Amino acid sequence: MAKKVVATLKKEGGGKNFAKIIKAVKSDKTGAYTFKEEMVPLDQVQSALKSNS
């Protein structure tokens, strides 16, 4: 049987205080879209979405 791997964020607040943001980023060179994923604290979600990187 295969084992299921579960990633956890075991800090003081646990993983409930983080959000996973997935952005679609268009390449200037090819015009294709790629996806950038990042984990940010809930209080920094809006600033992470406004950033252009």
Average predicted confidence as pLDDT: 79
| Biggest pleated sheet | 2 strands, antiparallel
Could you tell me how far the N terminus lies from the C terminus, measured between alpha carbons in angstroms?
A: 41 Å
Categorize the overall geometry: flat
Percent strand: 25-35%
Estimate percent helicity: 10-25%
Number of continuous helical runs: 1
How is the quaternary structure best described?
Answer: single chain
Layout of SSEs?
Layout: E1 18-26, E2 33-41, H1 45-50
Antiparallel strand pairs: 1-2
Protein name: DUF4295 domain-containing protein
Organism: Rhodocytophaga aerolata
InterPro entries: DUF4295 (IPR025379)
Describe it for me?
With 53 residues, this protein is mainly beta. It has one helix and two strands. It has one helix at residues 45-50, and strands at 18-26, 33-41. Strands 1-2 form a two-stranded antiparallel ribbon. The longest helix has 6 residues, at 45-50. The termini are far apart. The relative contact order is 0.22. InterPro entries: DUF4295 (IPR025379). This is DUF4295 domain-containing protein.
What's this, in brief?
Helix content is 11%, strand content 34%. The chain has 53 residues and is mostly beta strands. Strand 1 and strand 2 form a beta hairpin.
Q: Any descriptors?
A:
single chain, 53 residues, mainly beta, two-stranded antiparallel sheet, 1 helix, 11% helix, flat, DUF4295 domain-containing protein, DUF4295
